Amino acid sequence: MRSPVLIxxxxxIVETARDRRTLGSLLIGPLIGxxxxxxxxxxxxxxxxxxxxxxxxVAMVGAEGAPNLLAYLRARExxxxxxxxxxxxxxxxxxxxxxxxxxxxxxxxxxxxxxGTAHAAHVTVIFDGSKQRAQGRVAxxxxxxxxxxxxxxxxxxxxxxxxxxxxxxxxxxxRDVSTSAGRSVLLLGTLTYFLLFATLTGxxxxxxxxxxxxxxxxxxxxxxxxxxxxxxxLLGKMAATIVYMLAALAITLAAYVLVMQRLPLExxxxxxxxxxxxxxxxxxxxxPIAPLGAALMTLIASFTRTYREAQTYLSFxxxxxxxxxIFAAITNVESSxxxxxxxxxxxxxxVTTLIxxxxxxxxxVALSAGSTLVFAALLAWVAGRLYRREAILG
Amino acid sequence: MIEVEALGKQFGAVxxxxxxxxxxxxxxxxxxxxxxxxxxxxxLRILSTVLAPDRGHARIGGVDLATSALAARRLFGVxxxxxxxxxxxxxRENIEYYGRLHGLSEPRIAERADELIARLExxxxxxxxxxxxxxxxxxxxxxxxxxxxxxxxxxxxxxxxGLDVMATRHLRxxxxxxxxxxxxxxxxxxxxxxxEALVDDLVVISTGRVTLTGSPGELAQRFPGRxxxxxxxxxxxxxxxxxxxxx
Lengths: 394, 247
Prior knowledge:
The complex is a heterodimer. A four-stranded mixed beta sheet of chain A has the order 2-1-3-4. Chain A is built from 15 helices and four strands. The relative contact order of chain A is 0.12. Chain A has helices at 4-18, 20-47, 67-75, 89-97, 111-116, 132-159, 180-216, 220-223, 230-262, 276-286, 289-301, 307-317, 322-331, 345-355, 362-387; strands spanning 56-61, 78-81, 103-107, 123-127. By secondary structure, chain B is α/β, with parallel strands linked by helices. Chain B has a domain at 83-151. Chain B has nine helices and ten strands. Chain B has helices at residues 40-47, 69-73, 91-101, 106-119, 135-146, 165-180, 192-196, 216-222, 228-246; strands at residues 2-11, 14-24, 28-33, 55-60, 63-64, 76-79, 153-157, 184-189, 201-206, 209-214. In chain B, the strands form two sheets. In chain B, strands 6-7-8-3-9-10 form a six-stranded mixed beta sheet, sandwiched between helices. Chain B has a four-stranded antiparallel beta sheet with strand order 2-1-4-5. The chains are: A mainly alpha, B alpha/beta. Chains A and B meet through helix 1 and helix 8 of A and helix 2, helix 3 and helix 5 of B.
């Protein structure tokens, strides 16, 4: 004779697997995060500086008047683009305003004359400041032209016997000490949230079904007339909920690993240390969340009368694990034993450490898992108490 | 044998049961009769150990429900008011699930499921998901599920509700068969004519109290010249009046 907990657990797994709606939500939950991640990354890559080695074609007006400048720009992979419609500065302004061109470089008609006579020659960048997309490329062209101007200026000073450094009383150097993996954290910070979200969504249906769902289908009452303690029924159902949550977590992690391997993270000066190994560690770090989520959701669902009502409450509950993550983002805290007792925050900090490719302290992992499981046991006990009330029948 | 002694149950201000006592004997069909809201369902829910009474005692097969609910649950099967099948499981799986939770061995479960499916003529639908079942099919599977562990006591809450004429006739046949096997059958109903032809003993409940007991024959003798329905209505009305007067 098998244990009733196992019998109930297996039956719930089979029944849920046959419900197409539920299975759909089990798959959609885990894929939202990775998909959003792909979209975000692609947008970022397309917006950020087309880095120095990429060829950049720029529409120009009056390019023939400045062959030396053009040669300098070419050396920096910036090429003039011939657009037949744009002949004058006014054409260029119109084209940028309507969005036909991202931006146009206009070289003044008197450029050659002014340049030759050592007057200030004019070059205009025509762009639309409200369009974020072009900013990176505009900055690159502007930087190249400034560098050219400085170089020519320095040469002219030297020709007049003046030390060019006189014109630069201050030199400002940037030194960014973040590692490339560290920079990835900015973006990968969303990862924990989506992992937690997918885990909880994966078990939501079953958690609701355990109380509100069975009650609504009128199957709870006959179930309670069987010679099985109510705690066993509840534990079996929670076990099935945990199985589905862990499945959702595993699917999400697998999707992230696949996505990370195909994304041009290096283009954003980030590296991904998120391989199969890290995914397995992340699974271990995050799996105590499943019992906690299962117990909490079962507990909340036991107060509700119908499946829909439970769904409403639990959708709000999905926001709860984000609160510590937001707190961590604002206060910029680091993993420390003091914070490891807080479920979801501790997992977030540990997973972030993992993404930064920093060593993970096994004691912190144990502390986080232990504390989360204690909370889970406490909530499960309360849920058990509620399941024994008569009001559970509604 | 089902014995009920001075059972009382209150939901907030509503006194659902107010000292109900009766007994249902083995080898007999006992009908728990009363208008809607009389307390029939509450009584059956206490007997199926889903609710606990505030006062009084109930024993099934000599086992006290208050002290040994788990042991008592092995001795009875319940057909609830709504069938409560799992829609994603097939009829057979619904029956098997209850067999497993009753702790039967797998060969025994298969044997019982085959027997019940054959006897209740469920062969055509037993391997289809329960969500597509008709009301009659649902009731039949729920009955098979309630009988999977071969219980001595069978309790049915308004079993003919929503059934068509043919299904109702079949159900009556099976209940008579259970009686012939020496089982104790207790069913609730609010339709007099329905139980008249079927039951051996009648327990009429109204506003939480037993107002009449006896076999249909005895009642006909005690109230000559009146149909059972007239007796039933009078009992219900007078009980409602006395309850209103008391409060």
